[in-house]
Amino acid sequence: MRWGLVGASDIAATRVVPAMRRLGHEVSAVLSTSPERGRAYAAANAIPVSTTELDALLGRDDVDAVYISTTNELHHPQTLVAAAAGKHVLCEKPLALSVDDAWEMIAACREAGVVLATNHHLPAAGTHRAIRQLVAAGAVGRPLAVRVFHAVHLPDRLQGWRLTGQGRGAGVILDVTCHDAAAVRAILGRDAVEAAAVAVRQGPWEAVAEDAVVSALRYEGDVLVQTHDAFTVAYARTGLEVHGQEGSIVAVDVMTQDPGGLVTLRDRSGEREVQVTDRRDLYEAALEAFAGAVRGDGRPIVDGVDGAHALAVALAVKDAAESGRTVAVARGRDGTSPPEDR
Questions:
Q1: What percent of the chain is modeled with pLDDT above 70?
Q2: CA dist 124 to 30, 48, 107, 219, 292, Å?
Q3: Which residues of 321-341 are buried (b: 16+ CB within 10 A; e: fewer)?
Q4: Is 88 in contact with 185 (CB distance < 8 Å)?
């Protein structure tokens, strides 16, 4: 597959482009709004062409798909233009800054006959797939609760618009909580119904949005989900737990970009480690599934619909934290879950 990068981003350089090349994909061009940055980025990452014009990148015959990793407010308009140009789209999270925009992106890609996927990496992890399989097989019985610990430290190199980007979706909720939502939906196979949350600013920096949040959500079937997300916790381990009537799954170090982590199952027979044989790079797994979907073989691990649901959860958490109310999670353009998603 031949790619055009829309955005000269850190995530593309450090994670996605290396994964593309390990799969034998080509990176044909990169778009940056700064000519100087674009040329330097292209040189540093062995990309033959840099441009400042989206139409120029989309008009290239050696671009089959685009990876959009610009700042959040640009995801929606750039996806619409890419779809109209007949290019498949892998878009960074959050898919957009509003649920309506996300569903417009989904509709545009469907109408154009191109694949839309969201770059939520966690459902591609072997640990998460193992947890999902255990839940689906009834290993814990009826699911009752999920706890997610995803409080990490925001590296210096990323302490830009995520903290100060007014209008760009700054804050930990749209950066991290949306990942939790994608992971929990994939594991449970259920949608969130409502959210409550408390958010604060804890970091030693000037920020326009929250950098730490605790949320409490109710999912379909009255499954309760608790999350703690932060940019401010430097030394903790991440984790995810699923508790059911017949057992519990406890997973440690599984909310990261790397394929490590330990999964343990506890039930009436005792405690045992779950053998996770799939330790593949998360981005490789996601890109391979995306390429398969482009060929008509399967679907992306996290498609546009999944990304829209994750965004809806994050926006409900943000609204709940700002308002002090319990907020219903939007379920589509008209407030309901679209029939084709059921």
A1: 97
A2: 25, 29, 24, 22, 14
A3: beeeeebebbbbbeeeeeeee
A4: no
HSE, side-chain direction, 13 A CA sphere, residue 114: 23
In the CATH hierarchy, which fold is given to the domain comprising 123-279+309-341? Answer: Dihydrodipicolinate Reductase; domain 2 (3.30.360)
Q: CA nearest 69: which of 133, 130, 15, 124?
A: 15
Short-list 243, 232, 231, 235, CA closest to 188 = 243
- Contact in structure between 80 and 111 (CB atoms under 8 Å): no
Those residues whose C-beta lies under 8 Å from the C-beta of residue 307, and which sit 6 or more positions away, are 91, 93, 94, 95, 102, 117, 118, 120, 182
3-state secondary structure of 103: helix
Q: What is the DSSP string of 206-217?
A: --SS-SEEEEEE
Would you tell me how many other CB atoms lie within 10 Å of the CB of residue 190?
14
pLDDT tens, 137-196? 999 999 999 999 999 999 888 787 788 777 778 899 999 999 999 999 999 999 999 999
CATH number of 2-121+286-302: 3.40.50.720
Tracing tokens 């008209």 back to the chain, one arrives at 334
Instruction: Give the integer Cα–Cα distance in Å for 95 and 219.
Output: 21
Residue carrying the six token digits 């959040």:
72
pTM metric for this prediction: 0.94
In the chain, domain spans: 2-121+286-302, 123-279+309-341
